[in-house]
Amino acid sequence: MRGIGWAEWVLLAPFVLFVVGFELYPILVMVGRSFFDQSGAPTLAYYLQILENPVYRTAIRNSLLFATAGAAVGALGGTFVGYLAPRLPRRLHQFLLSLYALPLTLSGLVVAFAFIVLLGRNGVLNLIARELFDLPRNVYFDIYSWYGIVLVYAFFQIPLMTLTMAAVFENLDRSLIEAARNLGARPWQVWRHVIIPVLAPGFLAGLSIQFAGLLGAFGTVLALVGGAKNLLAIQIYYHTSESTYNLPQAAALSVVLIGLIASVLFLLNRLERWARQAGGG
Amino acid sequence: MRRVTSLQMVLLVLLVAFIVVPLLMPVIFSFSVYWQDILPEGFTLQWYERFLSKPATSRSLTVSLIVASSAVALNLVIAVPAGYAMARMRGRARRFLVAVARILPLVLPPVVVGTALLLAFSGPPLAISGTIWMVIIAHTLLGFPFMIRNTLASFDTLDVNTLSEAAQSLGANLWQRLRYVILPNVAPGVLAGALLVFAISIGEFEVTSMVAGFEAQTLPLQLFQQIRNDMRIASAISAFLVYVSLVCFLGMTWLSAYLRERRG
Q1: Residue B51, in any domain of the structure
Q2: What is the number of CB-based contacts under 8 A between chain A and chain B?
Q3: What is the domain count for chain B?
Q4: What pLDDT digit, counting tens, does each position of B22-35 carry?
């Protein structure tokens, strides 16, 4: 077994310096600032604000609901495509996964722009629907509603989940299922003891990534509706910009956001362990 | 292998269209003279011309290219050696470092990174918030989990230790081992990581909008303004960002196909 020699330390030095200097140090400064008021006296006022002010409480609730809805859509769509992909002819399979890797690098603003053109008040799809079904002008799919925002985020979430699930389904050993069936296992037993234990860890890992991303998401929301939708990340953003400038409050809200994400990751991690054990694997 | 039912096929086509159609929107918009009805009308390059001739947007293109190239360069210095070191390590230390590189970006979303950078670097000892340096550092931070993952994967498939020892036993010194044995083998993977970092940096909006100030206006920041002011210029910028993503992405696909082929 090989430990860390001097060569590894030298090679790791830039990475460690960078992470400590530009990631951990700023986070510590931020956590520190959330406990001191503008004059430098220690205070818990910013956290009490979050507990008492209904605007912040709504923001937290909205963020959790939005992340849950977005993750559910992503999980459903991504699991479906991930399940189908390995069954397609090889070339099609590869094309599909390549296509689905594209949104990962695409700017959230470009996606916002695309969906405004498609589904804005006079968006192409709304115009087509109006023509086809002879709808009145005030009936249209509203991309600026919560449903609309979840739909736009699905553009990122479904592909993200697909990439995870396609790999998971490829690893699902068909012969294992056949063997279980041949040994007389009923369909639910096959699911309970063979399929779910194999799928669960990947599925829950994918779900964790979805949740973590969605809880902190704000760029595309901001481009679509500005500050009209009250999300935790939007609140933080507005507290760092000129109109409602309040950095210590932004810091406290950030600490709460980190806490939320960490809790969700922790719970899903627990669930993953439980699923593994329940499968007896 | 079981076949795919026709209902599944229809759903699949819809889910493919869900990605392809939005990607086409900015491209079609940017080449059309007029698009008020269902179908766009005319063909023009004038929106691209306006995007390149307007001082604010053309300057932001330069800023974005400088920032993305610098983020790639910094990542090569930071993440490639780290990936190499991690590939040589075993056991706990390695698991810890891989977990740090994997979990930190999950737990620290862009809005938190932006707030933290703003708070830490607005005053002494290092007051760089609002400058292009801050933006470069932010983009490097956002990119390195991907760079490390790519580098680590290419070093892992390589069996660095055996190769290094073989080269060493043949009398190669450290420099020769790196130059002739290790680097040529990991170059495609590292290059794919570099393309990924570049694409992420060119499109990044969230952290940038928090730390850039007026001095370091990148392309996405201009796009954000133009979505409100002028959908025409917005379409040209959006389409340009789609092209950058596509090119980086085709590069990555080509590199991974090349790697698969070389490994047999």
Answers
A1: no
A2: 235
A3: 2
A4: 999 999 999 998 88
Q: Which of A29, A222, A261 sits opposite B116 (nearest CB)?
A: A29
CB contact under 8 A, A101 and B227: no
CATH number of A49-278: 1.10.3720.10
Do both B143 and B223 map to the same domain?
yes
Residues B145 and B220 in one domain: yes
Question: What average pLDDT does the segment B211-225 reach?
Answer: 92
What mean pLDDT is predicted for residues B185-196?
Answer: 89
Across the range A102-128, mean pLDDT stands at: 91
Same domain as B252, residue B158: yes
Q: In the predicted model, is pLDDT for residue A279 greater than 70? A: no
Domain ranges of chain A: 49-278
Domain that holds residue B189: 56-262
Confidence of residue B98 (pLDDT cuts 50, 70, 90): confident
> Which residues in chain B have their CB less than 8 angstroms from residue A100's CB?
19
Q: Do A109 and B113 touch (CB under 8 A)?
A: no
Shortest Cα–Cα distance, B149 to chain A (Å)? 13
* pLDDT band of B85, cuts 50, 70, 90: confident
Please answer yes or no on whether A251 and B119 come within 8 Å at the CB atom.
yes
Instruction: Tell whether B31 and B132 lie within a shared domain.
Output: no
Amino acid at A226: G
Residues of A in contact with B77 (CB under 8 A): 14
Same domain? For B180 and B156 the reply is yes
Contact by Cβ (8 Å): A194, A177: yes
Given pLDDT bands bounded at 50, 70 and 90, which one contains residue B263? low
Q: Do B115 and A240 touch (CB under 8 A)?
A: yes
Pick B38's closest partner by Cβ from A124, A217, A237. Answer: A124
Contact at 8 Å (CB) between A279 and A197? Answer: yes
From chain B, the residues in CB contact with A217 under 8 A are: 109
Give residue A281's pLDDT band: very low, low, confident or very high (50, 70, 90). very low
Q: The CATH number of the domain where B73 resides is what?
A: 1.10.3720.10
- How far, in Å, CA of A21 to CA of A26, rounded? 7
Angle between helical axes of A54-84 and A247-278 (0-180°, round to 10) = 40
Closest CA to A109 of A97, A98, A117: A117
Q: Which residues in chain A are contacts of B135 at CB distance < 8 A?
A: none
